[in-house]
Amino acid sequence: MIRHTVVFRLKHAAGSEREAAFLKAADILDTIPGVEKFEKLRQVSPKNDYRFGFSMEFADQAAYQRYNDHPDHVAFVQGRWIPEVEAFMEIDYVALG
Fold first, then answer.
1. d(CA 19, CA 81)
2. Were 81 and a residue from 5, 31, 72, 77 both cysteine, which residue would form a disulfide, CB within 3.0 to 4.6 Å?
3. Domains along the chain?
4. In 10 A of CB 44, how many CB atoms?
5. For the segment 21-73, what is each residue's pLDDT rounded down to a tens digit?
């Protein structure tokens, strides 16, 4: 299992319609085959300035790669992520032991 996570900060003002539209548009990611346990998260720690996170799981590396290559993922990254995300950090995990 691979847990794919990303924390990010949008270019949009907090609470704005554009922020809400971006988060709603991200729902498309949950419809991509192989995506499990998709979550959209609000970051609450004062230890960093990222505001949101996405988390999802994949059965294996092949499922994760199919997600990365899927046209809906590519379109979201090109059409929404790149123009609207100010900063991000992506971390992909596999369980130890």
1. 12
2. 77
3. 2-94 (3.30.70.100)
4. 6
5. 999 999 999 999 999 999 999 999 999 999 999 999 999 999 999 999 999 99
